[in-house]
Structure formats: structure tokens, C-alpha cells
Amino acid sequence: MQKNLLRLYPQPCNEVSIEGLYLAHQIHKLGTAQSPFVYANFLSSLDGRIALEDNVKSTTYIPKHLTTASDFKLFMELHAQADCLITHGGYMRALNEGRLGNILQIKDPYLVEWRHNNGLKPQPAVIIASASLDFPFHDSLKEHEQDVYIATGRAADPERIHYWQDLGHTVVFTGEDQRVHGAPLIQELAKLGYQSIYLIAGPQMLDAVIRDKQLSRLYLTITHQLIGGKDFRTLLTGSILGPEGNLILESLFYDPDSPPESGQFFMQFRPKAV
Prior knowledge:
Blueprint: E1 4-9, E2 14-17, E3 37-44, E4 51-54, E5 59-61, H1 69-80, E6 84-88, H2 89-97, H3 109-117, E7 125-129, H4 139-143, E8 148-152, H5 158-166, E9 170-173, H6 182-191, E10 196-199, H7 203-211, E11 217-223, E12 232-233, E13 247-255, E14 264-271
Parallel strand pairs: 3-10, 3-11, 6-7, 6-10, 7-8, 8-9
Antiparallel strand pairs: 1-2, 1-13, 4-5, 4-12, 11-14, 13-14
């Protein structure tokens, strides 16, 4: 059964199919080798929770009732258009511990075929951003023959840098301290020839690319739920943003059926500074 969403913006207001909604954006054609198209996608509750923290276990997790099949479908449509993914060491640790699912590969046969028909490699390259360089390598990356790069700062632990280099991985330096900085990271990825870069990392990386004016588009799903909780993660970290935090709404879709007895918005924003 085909699922429809209600388009609220831009006008006119009408029903549209969720099937292929984000594939139609043709993101893989928007960037160039000189100026990659960098886009991010986040899922949030109405009160700004993207994840909760379990202080007893010292872990972060996404409440199951926050996620929906519709959101995941559109998340993977964005995934399919990337020639490069940016994730982070925290995700790799969570994946290894079974706290989060594997989103490093395209598995839907339809999306695999779509990539092939649009001249993209079977799977995107993966950039793992990390200051500590302390994370496990997931077997699926090797199984799918994905290009993998490790991004860190020049002040990172030399032993950890050599550890990854000895395993045959290229370490990309993106700042003078330990952190991964937005502009140097995107500049290095541009040198590697990547043109459509999908940010699936957490709030620290979103903060980094926004502050350095590297973000081209933000996709945001907001479920109509209040999650609460004293310990949580939200979209950004760091100090107050200036004009680079101003966003222009480009599209808004309403899904009244999920989550059950609630609903959600699918939104697309363009940073005003870009």
C-alpha cells in the first residue's frame, strides 16, 4: 500500500507519495570536486531530544518510540545519494556493542540498483571522525569493500595514529588540536574527489560543519512527541551560534500516521550563510 504525506510547504498543499521523495532531490548531482555538497539528517522529538543518556551504563541510546519506518526510509534515500559518509568513533563503539544498528551500507535492492543506474559505487566511502582514535573497526566495511578513512587532529595520540596506519588506513588530519574541524575535513574530502557528503555523525560534527559554514542542507524529522528526561543529547554542542545558525525552510511534509497516535514533520533547510 502506497503511503502518502501532506506537503505543507511550498504551496500548493497536496498529497505526495513518500516513495522516492528524497531521491527526487538528486543530491549526487549538486556538488562538485571543488565544492562538495554536504548534507545532514537528524531525528528529534518536539522537546529537542535526539538521544537519551544512561548514566548508569555510561551509554547513549535512541528511544525506540522516537523512530519510525517512514523516517528510516527517507534516511536511506539520502544515504543512497552519497558517495561519502561521515560517521564518528562513538557510533563505531555503539555499533560494536550492539546499542545501534548498522547504517554503514545500502542494503535495499532498489536503492542498490538506483546507485548503479546513477553512476555511484555500490557502497559509499566512510570517514570515521575521532579525537581519541579509540574505536573498533566493523567487519562489514571490509566485507563490502568500502574505502575507509580516519579523520582526526594533528595533536592526536601518535600511537593511535600509527595503529591505524599500520592497519593500512589513511589518516586524514583536519586541525591542529585533537578535534576534527569542519572546513579542513571537507577540504580534504574534496581533494579525494568526493562530491556528495552525508553527515550521519552526531551533534559535535554538525556543530563543526555549521560553524565553518560547510553545511549545504539540513534534513530534520521532528516527531510530535515530548520525550523528557534530564540527561539527553540535542542537535548541537558548543557555544551560541551567530548568523551561520540561520536556516531557510525549503520544504515541509506532514505524516499524520506515525508514530502511532502522534505524527511527524519532515523538513528541509538551507543555511542562510551558504
